Automatic annotation (TrEMBL):
GO terms for molecular function: isomerase activity; ketol-acid reductoisomerase activity; metal ion binding. Its EC number is 1.1.1.86. Mg(2+) 1 binds at D209, E213. Keywords: Amino-acid biosynthesis, Branched-chain amino acid biosynthesis, Isomerase, Magnesium, Metal-binding, Oxidoreductase. This is Ketol-acid reductoisomerase. Substrate binds at S271. The lineage of its organism: Bacteria, Pseudomonadati, Bacteroidota, Bacteroidia, Bacteroidales. GO terms for biological process: isoleucine biosynthetic process; L-valine biosynthetic process.
């Protein structure tokens, strides 16, 4: 493993140079990889693996018609490479469990009967295994249990792959029955198109992932945008002005500079006026939200967050509830204003 210095802390990382695609093909040459669930991660991982010459089949409940049809549109053939969940899981020597986390709990009694000695059960999230008291997902002892979690949306897993780039993933071995669990998970990580792979545990993966998506990546991001937009609007600024100063300038300019060379680089490319103010206000924002992040991590660790997910997602009308909530967000003034702002971009495609 390569030793890499992350800001003064040395960590192990597996790179594509070290664990090559050829090696991955060799490790997985006799495996049938059954991707169970054709939602967001399922298609991305299945297609990347298929494109790279791995033996992939898909397992999907036909009742989820749009996902079943999507698999067919992507070239999977019913009865040949596309099957109902149990049939695919029985055929697979590696079973990638990529239905939603809540569905993993529901399908588990059926799925576990399909696992044969020496199979590998693969997750892209530490959820089901870590919170086993809530999910009941306790794998049998005669299989490998592994994790490879791309650190991005399945949409980016596929797009980055097609663009010739990768997305980084974390990986872990929870149970090594065959003695091949590590090489299997690394080979799968490369097969799904990861740029590099860094080791974690199931528990660390799920704690950090749930914190990240509820925090900076999604929840906090939308929350602080909303707060700033509201204050600008209350002070008489127009929707376009408020949106531009809250979202558009970030996504079109400043976050790209952060992506390119870091926060100091973005600051360095802004005015001296902006730099002074941002440096002064940064600790105030940090200190204001620190208790919220601490509470968030506590809730994740104690199982409150996963309990909430399982409870909410098991309601029969949950899809409608979610759709209504997303519609409300999309139809709020800030994101309506965003739609109009995006239309003005010269390369507008929406
Ligand atoms: N969405 C993403 O980009 C990411 C997802 N993950 C993880 O990957 C795994 C899969 O997540 P997603 O792709 O988001 O899943 P998803 O929420 O899109 O669900 C996948 C598919 O599972 C099937 N399904 C759902 N409920 C079912 C049920 N009761 N019976 C039978 N089939 C059912 C549906 O066809 C659904 O489209 C999860 O563990 C998730 O945490 C990890 C990183 C990112
Ligand atoms: C895209 C990702 O990694 C998330 C945000 O954690 C998720 O979709 O669960
Ligand atoms: Mg994630
Ligand atoms: Mg997540």
């Amino acid at each position: 493993m390569a030793k890499i210095d992350f800001g003064g802390v040395i960590e192990d990382v597996v790179t594509r140079e070290e664990f090559t695609l050829e090696k991955a093909r060799e490790v997985l040459k006799n495996e049938t990889i059954a991707v169970i669930g054709y939602g967001v991660q399922g298609p991305a991982q299945a297609l990347n693996m298929r494109d790279q010459g791995f033996n992939v089949i898909v397992g999907q409940s036909p009742e989820f018609k749009s996902d079943w049809d999507k698999a067919i549109a992507d070239g999977f053939v019913p009865g040949e490479t596309l099957f109902p969940v149990a049939d695919a899981a029985k055929k697979g020597t590696i079973v990638q469990y990529l239905v939603s986390d809540a569905a993993q709990r529901i399908l588990w009694p059926e799925l576990k009967e399909c696992l044969n000695e020496g199979d590998a059960l693969y997750f892209s999230h530490g959820f089901s295994v870590t919170y086993k008291e809530q999910t009941g997902v306790i794998p049998p002892s005669n299989i490998d249990v592994i994790l490879c979690a791309p650190k991005g949306s399945g949409t980016s897993v596929r797009r980055n792959f097609l663009a010739g780039a990768g997305i980084n993933s974390s990986y872990s071995v929870f149970q090594d029955y065959t003695g091949r669990a590590t090489e299997r998970v690394l080979a799968l990580g490369i097969a799904i198109g990861s740029g590099y792979l860094f080791p974690t545990t199931f528990e660390k993966e799920v704690y950090s992932d749930l914190t990240g998506e509820r925090g900076v990546l999604m929840g906090a991001l939308a929350g602080i945008m909303d707060a700033q937009y509201k204050v600008l609007r209350e002070n008489g600024h127009s929707p376009s002005e408020a949106f531009n100063e809250t979202v558009e300038e970030l996504t079109q300019s400043l976050i790209r500079l952060v992506d390119e060379k870091g926060m100091d680089w973005m600051y360095a490319n802004c005015s001296a006026t902006a730099q002074r103010g941002a440096l002064d206000w940064m600790p105030r924002f940090r200190d204001a939200v620190l208790p919220v992040f601490k509470q968030l991590y506590e809730n994740v660790k104690s199982g409150k967050e996963t309990q909430r997910v399982i409870q909410a997602l098991s309601q029969p009308d949950y899809r409608n509830v979610l759709e209504a909530e997303l519609n409300e967000l999309g139809n709020s003034e800030i994101w309506k204003a965003g739609q109009a702002v995006r239309k003005l971009r010269p390369n507008h495609k929406e």
